[in-house]
C-alpha cells in the first residue's frame, strides 16, 4: 500500500471502523481449509496463511476501505475478494486486454480521493494496428463492475511481441501517477526519447501531462517521460519518509536492479547492464558509465522482482494490528524466480540490510493490508493471496 493510499484510508477510518473490525475477524479466520505455516526470519517466527485461492495468475492487488480486495488476473479479469476469501464474479466494464506472454490485465490502483469519486486505475496490454502496448484506463467502481471507463494513457509506439510490458502504478504525494513501461524486448528504444518504451512516465490522474516533467518542451521527446534507460520495471513504490519513487527492474541474464528514478535521469539500458544477454553475448563493459545513473543495488543471480511496498507496520485505525514491527520502514519486494519476499532495509538511499523470506512459490506482488499485515500474490494457475503476520502476536 502506498503512503498516499494509506493516508486516504486513515481520513475515512472512522466511517469504516465497524466494517474493519468485522473484516479483520474474517481475515484472521481465513478459508476453512487453509493450513498456516511458520517461517523463521531475523525478526522471529512469521506465520504464513492462505487468505484466498482460485485466482488465475493474479498480478495487481489493492485494498478497499471496507477491507475487501480488488485483484487483477492477467488473462483479463478483475475480481473483488472478500475478507473471508470469497471471490466475486468477474467485474464488468474492464477494458479488453491482450493476454499473451507477459501481457494481459496488470496493475490496479485507487484514486487518491477514491472515497469520494470511486475511481480506480488499471494498466494492461492493449492491441493496436501495429502491435501491442501498455495502456492505462480509469473507471468508477460500482456494484458489479466499472462505469465511465476512459483510457488515459497509451504507450507509443505499439510493437509486436509478448514481453516486457512493465505496468506498475504508483501515486506520488502530489497526486501525480507514475507508470512503469518495459522496453517490449526491443532494446534500443529505451534510449529514444520519442518512444515510451523502456521508460517511467508521470501523468496527472486525468492523463494530462504535469508541466514540471523533465522533458516538457524538448523537441521530439514524449512529454510524459520521467526517466529512461529501463529494461522491464514491474515493481514501484513510494517511500513514505521522502515521497520519492523507488523501482526494481528485471535484468537480462543477471543484473536485476533497484533504482530510485530521478527526473530526467538515464539508467543506461541497453548500453550498460550488470547482466549479460540470454544468447551469451556480452553487454559492453564496464556495467555502468558516468553519464548513466547506477543502480542502488543489483542482483546476480537474479531475484526477478515483481511488486514492492514500503512497509509501515501501522494498521488503519479501527483494525486490530497484525503487523510485523521489526520490518517497519523496510522495502518488501516480490520475487518470482527467487520464490520469496525480499526484505530490504534502506538508509540514505543505500541498502543497509537484506533478507529473503522463502515462500516456495512465485510471488507476483506484495502490499500492506489495513490490519498492518503483509499480503502477497502468488503467480500460478491457482493463484493465492498469502498473509504474513508475526507468530507471537
TrEMBL record:
Gene3D superfamilies reported for this sequence: TolB, C-terminal domain (2.120.10.30)
Domain Glucose/Sorbosone dehydrogenase: 55-387
Any one Pfam family match given in the protein's UniProt record, by short name: GSDH
Keyword Signal: yes
Keyword Thylakoid set for record: no
The entry's keywords: Signal
N-terminal signal peptide: 1-34
InterPro entries: 6-blade_b-propeller_TolB-like, Glc/Sorbosone_DH, Quinoprot_gluc/sorb_DH_b-prop
PANTHER family per record: ALDOSE SUGAR DEHYDROGENASE YLII, HEDGEHOG-INTERACTING PROTEIN
The name this protein goes by in its record: PQQ-dependent oxidoreductase, gdhB family
Amino acid at each position: 500500500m502506498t503512503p498516499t493510499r494509506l493516508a486516504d484510508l486513515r481520513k475515512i477510518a472512522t466511517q469504516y471502523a465497524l466494517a474493519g473490525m468485522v473484516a479483520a475477524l474474517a481475515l484472521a479466520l481465513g478459508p476453512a481449509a487453509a493450513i498456516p505455516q511458520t517461517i523463521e526470519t531475523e525478526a522471529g517466527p512469521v506465520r504464513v496463511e492462505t487468505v484466498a485461492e482460485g485466482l488465475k495468475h493474479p498480478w495487481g492487488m489493492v485494498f478497499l476501505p471496507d477491507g475487501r480486495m480488488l485483484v487483477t488476473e492477467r488473462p483479463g479479469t478483475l475480481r473483488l475478494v472478500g475478507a473471508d476469501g470469497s471471490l466475486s464474479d468477474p467485474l464488468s466494464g474492464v477494458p479488453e486486454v491482450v493476454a499473451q506472454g507477459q501481457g494481459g490485465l496488470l496493475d490496479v490502483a485507487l484514486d487518491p480521493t477514491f472515497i469520494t469519486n470511486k475511481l480506480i486505475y488499471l494498466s494492461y496490454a492493449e492491441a493496436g494496428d501495429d502491435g501491442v502496448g501498455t495502456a492505462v484506463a480509469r473507471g468508477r467502481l460500482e456494484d458489479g463492475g466499472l462505469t465511465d471507463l476512459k483510457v488515459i494513457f497509451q504507450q507509443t509506439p505499439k510493437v509486436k511481441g509478448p514481453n516486457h510490458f512493465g505496468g506498475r502504478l504508483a501515486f506520488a504525494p502530489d497526486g501525480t501517477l507514475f507508470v512503469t513501461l518495459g522496453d517490449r524486448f526491443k532494446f534500443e528504444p529505451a534510449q529514444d526519447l520519442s518512444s515510451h518504451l523502456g521508460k517511467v512516465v508521470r501523468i496527472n490522474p486525468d492523463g494530462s501531462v504535469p508541466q514540471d516533467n523533465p522533458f516538457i518542451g524538448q523537441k521530439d521527446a514524449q512529454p510524459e517521460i520521467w526517466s529512461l534507460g529501463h529494461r522491464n520495471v514491474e515493481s514501484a513504490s513510494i517511500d513514505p519518509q521522502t515521497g520519492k519513487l523507488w523501482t526494481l527492474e528485471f535484468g537480462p541474464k543477471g543484473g536485476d536492479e533497484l533504482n530510485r528514478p530521478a527526473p530526467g535521469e538515464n539508467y543506461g539500458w541497453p548500453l550498460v547492464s550488470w547482466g549479460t544477454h540470454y544468447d551469451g553475448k556480452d553487454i559492453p563493459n564496464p556495467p555502468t558509465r558516468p553519464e548513466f545513473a547506477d543502480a542502488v543495488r543489483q542482483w546476480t543471480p537474479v531475484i526477478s522482482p515483481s511488486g514492492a511496498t514500503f512497509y509501515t507496520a501501522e494498521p488503519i485505525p479501527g483494525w486490530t494490528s497484525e503487523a510485523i514491527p521489526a520490518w517497519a520502514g523496510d522495502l518488501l519486494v516480490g520475487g518470482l524466480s527467487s520464490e520469496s519476499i525480499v526484505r530490504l532495509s534502506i538508509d540514505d538511499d543505500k541498502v543497509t540490510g537484506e533478507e529473503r523470506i522463502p515462500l516456495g512459490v512465485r510471488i507476483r506482488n506484495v502490499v500492506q493490508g489495513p490490519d498492518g499485515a503483509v499480503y502477497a500474490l502468488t503467480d500460478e494457475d491457482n493463484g493465492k493471496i498469502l498473509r504474513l503476520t508475526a507468530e507471537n502476536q
